[in-house]
Amino acid sequence: MAAGVATWLPFARAAAVGWLPLAKKTMPKPPVDNSSRSDEILYVNVSGVRFQTWKNTLDRYPETLLGSSEKEFFYNEDTQEYFFDRDPEMFRHILNFYRTGKLHYPRNECIQAFDEELAFYGIVPEIIGDCCMEEYRDRKKENQERLAEDTEANEASDAPLPPHSTSRERLWRAFENPHTSTMALVFYYVTGFFIAVSVIANVVETVPCRPPKGSVKDLPCGEKYQLAFFCMDTACVLIFTFEYLMRLFAAPSRCKFMRSVMSVIDVVAIMPYYIGLVMPENEDVSGAFVTLRVFRVFRIFKFSRHSQGLRILGYTLKSCASELGFLLFSLTMAIIIFATVMFYAEKGTKGSTFTSIPASFWYTIVTMTTLGYGDMVPNTIAGKIFGSICSLSGVLVIALPVPVIVSNFSRIYHQNQRADKMRAQQKVRLARIRMAKKGTTNAFLQYKEDRDRDSDSTALCVKNRSAFEHQHHHLLHCLEKTTNHEFTDEMTYSELCMTESVGFRTSRSTSLSSQQGAQNNSTGCCPRRARRRAAMRLANSTVSVSRGSVQELDMLHVKTTSIPPQTRSSLNAQADDLKLNCGEQDFTAAIISIPTPPANTPDESLPPSPAPIPGILRNTRATAYTHDTVKISSL
Amino acid sequence: MLDFGILNRGVAKCLSLFAKLLPIFISVIENPSFKKCKFTKPLAGIYELELSAVRHRPEGLEQLEAQTRFSRKELQILYRGFKNECPSGVVNEETFKDIYSQFFPQGDASTYAHFLFNAFDTDHNGSVSFEDFVMGLSILLRGTVQEKLNWAFNLYDINKDGYITKEEMLDIMKAIYDMMGKCTYPVLKEETPRQHVEVFFQKMDKNKDGVVTIDEFIDCCQNDENIMRSMHLFENVL
Q: Are B196 and A22 inside 8 Å of each other by CB?
């Protein structure tokens, strides 16, 4: 323990006096210790709760926040104390760690909050004392499992389809999550119906029907209406085969799919029919054929795709495999013991049904499960005694592992419930987040409208927004200027997309925009449209340019063509002049060019002098590099 | 009907088997480690626990101030550290050994710690209280050279009879060399402690009577330059 060593070191050093008379060589000089030996009380203020402790206490663990110089960052000169804006309740435990050397986990605190506090104070959770370690670990594991489940649930079903999914992927999704499309739902119900029909047919087949005329014996319905049942069976098997092949085709990993439990059940359900078709009507083999028909009952397991409860049951049994194994093992032991005893106890009796030990197994099982058919009964006194012991112990042996299985089932069931609840909550949460985002966007758009409309009335707008909103809007504005795109709402966007096709022919700048679109189509789903939109705005804004600005434009044109546009710095100078000349923000938006494709050389895009404005712009743009445009735009 | 013949034979067989197994069973039970197992004596431990809750309170601060050469503040710091480590107020030998062993991880410090413990436990009651601790420290850190040499002599004199014999010295020497551990350079040999004892006795034992008395010891040390100089080494420890 670090604390112990630190405290006892002076003593150990003092005790070294005992070696001095025996020393063979001279002792080395002691290290110079300039630090003040006097202890002082430190004041630590955690959200208003004042803690006081010795400096030495905190110095015991120099690799933590409080023990190192890191705490100086939190020192408040005015009040001469260390101020932490954290939870004082948790701090109590942290400080106790310094005092006693043992970290305890408070059971009523959230595990994540505790972890965060530990991380803040630089304490490793591994040093939690033994008394609290188990609880801590259990809670942590539970929490992690829960989080993993939630993320899994989120990712799993309700994620929207990726835009470029193949038909195969869509088919797989339809199979796995039937509620995503109506077709899938229809298919789901149809297969469910046919499974039910198939199972019922199998059952009804064996019911005795009235015999046909001329015969006395009762006939099972299966043989009376053989053709009908055969047709029904064929139909079901066709549907199942079709479904299986579709799933096989759609599966992302066919090997994995073929190894999965459901696929095995599917195969086992349809195989008997095909084997029956293939096999000849032979007397010898028909016995085996009959056995095969038993496998048709496996079709009932196909319902587990349709029922979550069945799946939960399956998971439970799988998770309780060890308990079930133990149950089986102990039962086997008990059965063998009691069967042996009963056999030897009943051996001498005349007409005893306990003919052998394996024969006694049946008696033991029937007795232990308290069934008691009565087909085998002990007659001797010893047999009766052991028989009663057997039945008493049977109850115990079976009752022991059952609670474990039950608790497992309950846990898994509740987890499932929780997963469903979480999904519902998640939907609500996402909707709320979307609304909040829309609110922010709307506020920003409103701000821009006000700004565009009248620069004088910005004073009014200013009052209504907080400092945070100001800064946020400024940030969004900067982003707009950086990318030379503007934020719009959905209506305007859809309008733009529609007027897209109209603007295609009227604007000359579309040619260059298409160039860019071709080069730069990685920006989301509407890259070309985005570029064209910018071009549209370009066209719009150039129209709105006033007479004065046109003059300036001409000036600009003159400037750029006269000076060879080799050096960036010269262009930068131009840009600065530009800034000073232009007051209107729209104008600057027009001048700022779309990021150019690097392949463009200045000479190519030099248009003849009487070029329309977009052409001039193209000129300037072509000679300016992307960096420069950014410089211009970041006003 | 019960077949007595079979039953008799069966019972006889069982008994013989049991007779064979019984000695093994008994030996398992008699195994001391099995006996120590809590399973056999669950309740006794609880009573033992209550008895060991010894509490010791030291004399007043003023008295200690008078008896030792520490200032009030220093005593306060010392006591706070001591009480933190040993809330019951006393250190028993096991704890003492553990603490001292922490400083010498490579070797085995338990033997030397045992001698140290006896040197600190001046009233020989099996535990070192705060007074013992502080008195010892006072001599070692703030005492005169005479007092320190006295203390060292007391440490070496294991049976406290006033004479250091060669055997006692050898024990001490071996304990010190044990603290070094195995990995030393040059490699520790069997006779190194013995040789060291010989050297010591040659220096200290003036009248060659095989024992070193306190006067011989102090005289000799005071004439030794190195020892005198090193006596002041640890004065600034606290």
A: yes
